[in-house]
Every structure is written in C-alpha cells, then in structure tokens.
From TrEMBL:
Family matches, as CDD domains: MFS_ShiA_like
Species this protein is from: Streptomyces cyaneogriseus subsp. noncyanogenus
Localization annotation: Cell membrane
Positions of transmembrane segments: 7-30, 42-65, 77-98, 104-130, 142-165, 177-198, 231-256, 268-285, 297-316, 322-342, 363-382, 388-408
Protein name: Putative proline/betaine transporter
Domain Major facilitator superfamily (MFS) profile positions: 4-413
The protein's role, per its UniProt record: May be a proton symporter involved in the uptake of osmolytes such as proline and glycine betaine.
Gene3D superfamilies associated with the record: MFS general substrate transporter like domains
Keywords: Cell membrane, Membrane, Symport, Transmembrane, Transmembrane helix, Transport
Similarity comment: family membership: Belongs to the major facilitator superfamily. Metabolite:H+ Symporter (MHS) family (TC 2.A.1.6) family.
Acetylation is among the record's keywords: no
C-alpha cells in the first residue's frame, strides 16, 4: 500500500504542478508574453480564457482515458496521461512569445493547453482509483488522501518555484525568460513519475472484472445509464472546490497585484501560507471521513464556502497582509474540507465496470463548471460592479454544491464490488 499510495501521490503532484504553474503564469506574465497588444483588462481576460480552454478539454480527456481505463486497466492509462501532461507543459516553456511568432504564439499556446487538459482529465480518476481499489474498506478515505494531496503539494511546488525565480531574477529577466523555468522542470519530473508508475500493479477490483470478462464496452455511456444522478450531482457537488481554488489561486493574485498594488513576491508568499492550510486540511478531513462519513463533511464544507465567499474580497481590500492571508486561507480551507473526502466519495458512487469513466468525468465536468468559469465570471463582475459581487458569486456556487450533495447518499460503508 505504501508503493500504491506513493504512485498515486507522485503522479497527481506532478500533474497538478504542471497545471498550476500555468495558472500562476497566467496571473503574472502570460498576458504580456502572448497578448501584448490588448489592454490590461482584455489581456487578463484573454489569458484566463486560455486557462479555461484546458478545463474545457478535461471532460473529453476523462471520457477517452476513462474508456480505456475501464477496458484495458488503470495502470497503462495513467502512464499515458502523465506523458501527455508533462511533455505539453515542458513545451510551453519552450514556446516563443508574440514578439517572435506573432499570432501563431497564442494559437500554439491554446493547442498545448488543450493537450494539458486532456492529460489531466485522465489523471485524477485513475490516481484516485489506484488508491481506493487497493485500500481496505475502513481506510479508503485515508489512502485516497494520497491522490488528493497531489493537488496542494503540486501547487505549493509551483508557487515556490515561481517565488524563487522571481526573487533571484529582476523583473525584466523574469518576464523575459525566468517564468519559463518552472515549465521546463516538468521534463525532469515526468521522468521521475514514469519510473514510479511503471512499477505498480493493476488494482484488484479491475483485475477481477477483467478476469471474469465483464468489462463494459462503452463505460461512460453505461455510467450515464446506470448512475446518471451520481454523475451529474457529483459534478455539481465538486464545483465549489474549483470556484474557491481558482479564484483564490489565479484571479486573487491578479487582483491584489494589479488593483491593490501588492508586490508579486509578497502575494506568492501569502499564497504559500494558504496552500499549506489546504494541504493540512485535505489530509486530516480525508482521514476523518473514514470515521464520520464523507457526506457530512462535504456538507459542512459547502456551508462554510457560502459564508466565506462573501467575506473574501472585503478581507483582501484591507491591504493588510495578515487579513489577506486569512482570506486566502479560508477559501482554500473550504476547498480542503470538501476535496479531502472527494477522493474516496466519487469512486464509491460508481460500479467497477464504469468507475474510472464515471468518477473521472464527474470530477472534470465540475472543473468546467467551476474552474473554467469562475475566474472569468469573477473578473467580469469585478470589472463591471465590484470584487465583492464576485465573492457573492462564489457563495452562490457553494449553495449549488450544497444542494447537490444533499441529494447524494453516504458511501463510506459500501462494498466496491457490489456497487
């Protein structure tokens, strides 16, 4: 189980590192590198739109990788998803900007972002299943935490890498080439991840289905037919996770550095504090869910998010570093409370024949609803009204997720082979 947990964790950590460095770069430099002829607001929106493109590709990646994950096996698909994600990320670091390639630069950026999204769309479902399908029934939340911890650790590493580069280099050097270094590091990380993932075994649950020749011919269609409520309500349930995270991790950095005039390095340090809160809460709540159940904790997280969305931007607007750290940490604490149990909860909603497809598609559909839309909507609301109105949007999305989880059952004691 230690090897399985390590393989589950290391892959998601690398993949989320790849994904999050794009979000950080989008907030800091990509508008100048790839959209220099647009106004400041238009450049921000254009950059965030390329960010959204990756999310739009994730359900497609979940469908494709889920199909083969449910028919061929979890292990082989996870190797391919890691390669796609890592190589496309590294190539972004090599991509010349608008000054060199003209309009071809943002076009190629969108293409690579699509490949990133496809790769990550296949990653989470497989990593979560790798842990959950190997774990004892009373420890599924604990071992699924390995996959979930990849997100905060990957983001911490991404933020720290940008902070180091920004601190070591001057603004001109960082904006010119320094921002590319975190992307190039991905080439090394993907090699490490491949070595670890190639050493793991197939999960017992899938091996049993394959041995009995009961794999589904069209697993995603079967998931829609057998588990339509779980698939759609699961997507709605996880939406608030993406809203909280990508608003705090992407738009709030842009807002505080450009609108409030807070130095870039200071904001990266404050973000590291918030990400630490995310990591600790994700692990503790995932472990706790084995004792008290997944659903009850997720309900608490959505209620907390409904309150915190309304107070986030007033805390940021004070300009006080302590209150900014509290605001960002509260948003990511909300995410951790929900995100921790999700690693076991979503897979437990689906049968083994279509578990990869169902859990992965539901997870990534929630990403489109929350992660792709949230930074764009909050930016537009802040531009036309105020940032506080954007916070109200976050609260509304939390209430939407609350309604979805209230319509779902508890799954802690389920036998995975009997779903």
């Amino acid at each position: 189980m230690r090897r399985i947990a390590t393989a589950s964790f290391i892959g998601t950590a690398i993949e989320f590192y790849d994904y999050y460095i794009y979000g950080t770069a989008a907030a800091l430099v990509l508008d100048d590198a790839f959209f220099p002829e647009l106004s400041e607001t238009a450049g921000t929106l254009a950059t965030l739109s390329t960010f959204a493109v990756g999310f739009a590709a994730r359900p497609l990646g979940a469908a494709v990788f889920g199909h083969f994950g449910d028919r061929v096996g979890r292990k082989a698909v996870l190797v391919v998803s890691l390669l796609m994600m890592g190589l496309s990320t590294g190539l972004i670091g090599l991509l010349p900007g608008y000054d060199t390639l003209g309009v071809a630069a943002p076009v190629l950026l969108v293409v690579l972002r699509l490949v990133q999204g496809l790769g990550l769309g296949g990653e989470w479902g497989g990593a979560a299943l790798l842990a959950v399908e190997h774990a004892p029934r009373n420890k599924r939340g604990l071992y699924a935490a390995a996959a979930q911890m990849g997100s905060p650790v990957g983001y911490f590493a991404a933020t720290l890498t940008f902070l180091v580069m920004s601190s070591v280099l001057g603004d001109a050097a960082f904006d010119s080439w320094g921002w590319r270094v975190p992307f190039l590091i991905s080439f090394v990380l993907v090699a490490v991840g491949l070595v670890i993932r190639l050493r793991i075994a197939e999960t017992p649950a899938f091996a049993k289905v394959a041995e009995e020749r009961e794999t589904a011919k069209a697993p995603l269609l079967e998931a829609f037919r057998v588990h339509p409520r779980e698939l759609l309500l699961g997507a709605g349930m996880i939406t608030v996770v993406y809203v909280m995270f990508y608003t705090a991790a992407t738009y709030c950095i842009t807002y505080t550095t450009e609108e409030l005039g807070i130095p870039k390095n200071d904001m990266l340090l404050l973000t590291l504090v918030a990400v630490t809160v995310l990591g600790v809460s994700t692990y503790l709540v995932a472990r706790w869910s084995d004792r008290v159940g997944r659903r009850r904790l997720i309900i608490g997280g959505t209620l907390f998010g409904a309150v915190w969305g309304a107070v986030l931007f007033p805390l940021l607007d004070t300009g006080d570093y302590v209150l900014i750290a509290v605001g960002l940490s509260g948003a990511l604490l909300c995410m951790g409370i929900i995100y921790g149990p999700i690693g076991a909860y979503l897979p437990e909603l689906f049968g083994t024949r279509m578990r990869y497809s169902g859990a992965g598609f539901s997870y990534n559909l929630g990403g489109v609803l929350g992660g792709a839309a949230a930074p764009l909507v909050v930016t537009a609301l802040a531009e036309n009204y105020s940032a506080t109105v954007g916070g109200w949007f976050m609260s509304a999305m939390a209430l939407l997720s609350l309604g979805c989880v209230l319509a779902l059952p508890e799954t802690r004691d389920r036998d995975l082979d009997a779903v």
